[in-house]
Amino acid sequence: MMESIFSPETYSLIGQWAFAFCKNLSLAIIVYFAGSFIIKWIKKLVIKMLQRSKVDTSLYTFLTSIVNVVLWFTLIIVVISILGIETSSFIALFASAGVAIGMALSGTLQNFAGGVMILLFKPFKVGDYIEAQGFAGTVKEIQIFNTILLTVDAQTIIIPNGGLSTGTMKNYSKEPYRRVDLDFQFAYGTDLLEVKKAIREIQAKNDKILQGPVDDSKIVAEPWIGLTQLGDSGVVVNTRTWCKGADYWAVYFYMNETVYQELKDRGFMFPFNRMDVTILNK
Known about the structure:
This protein has about 280 residues and is α+β, with helices and mostly antiparallel strands. About 50% of the residues lie in helices and about 20% in strands. It has helices spanning about 10-50, 55-80, 90-105, 105-120, 160-165, 190-205, 250-265, and strands spanning about 130, 135-140, 145-150, 155-160, 170, 175-185, 225-230, 235-245. The strands form 2 sheets. Strands 4-3-2-1-5 form a 5-stranded antiparallel sheet. A 3-stranded antiparallel sheet has the order 6-8-7, covered by helices on one side. A hairpin with a 4-residue loop joins β7 (about 225-230) and β8 (about 235-245). The radius of gyration is 36 Å and the shape is elongated. The chain starts with 7 loop residues before the first helix and ends in a 17-residue tail after the last helix.
């Protein structure tokens, strides 16, 4: 009869190892399925929270993807550690890969972070007229990496979100009302009271021009006219006219065209720069 090559102690150790491995494997399987269920529950909870906060759809899609990756990575590390496998090397490998990818995609990640900030804090929204990075236009689309503007002459401008979120930006649509500031120059000797009276009549004739404060705004005031400068060729009269934001350009062109035409017809002179040259004969 053939004798066993293993001693009873060896069989005992193998049995103990097999028992421990089966125990750890069973625990790892239980943790894996329980963790999968918890991850799905957390994803649904995060989506509901983001939807309730009215976060842009493209943003919560990215955020839930990030949450999903982090949770699954954590679960895999936990399962591996339960099986008795050393996890420090895995963590170090993923950390090194993350650093390398982050350095390679630093600009892209900056734009991504800027997109997240814009979609979260909403300094502007689709349809707003903004001015930023040397461009002005209506916001056509807010993407996770870029913002797309449509200019008044139908040009499409793509601005990276990184610089847009950290730079200076004007949002002309944020407030419901805007003020139209215009300067008109008249010849010296012009009756200032008559000029102000004529311009005030022009302002009063347009229904789009607000004639005084409104209930939902504390900054809107009645139209204002005043002498602001004694120029080289004449006196400069400034007009400040309030209107709704959507009526800004209509009021802007109305004031320019009507003030020029009506005051010219009334005999007021609009000076222009000139140079007198004197020739001396020797």
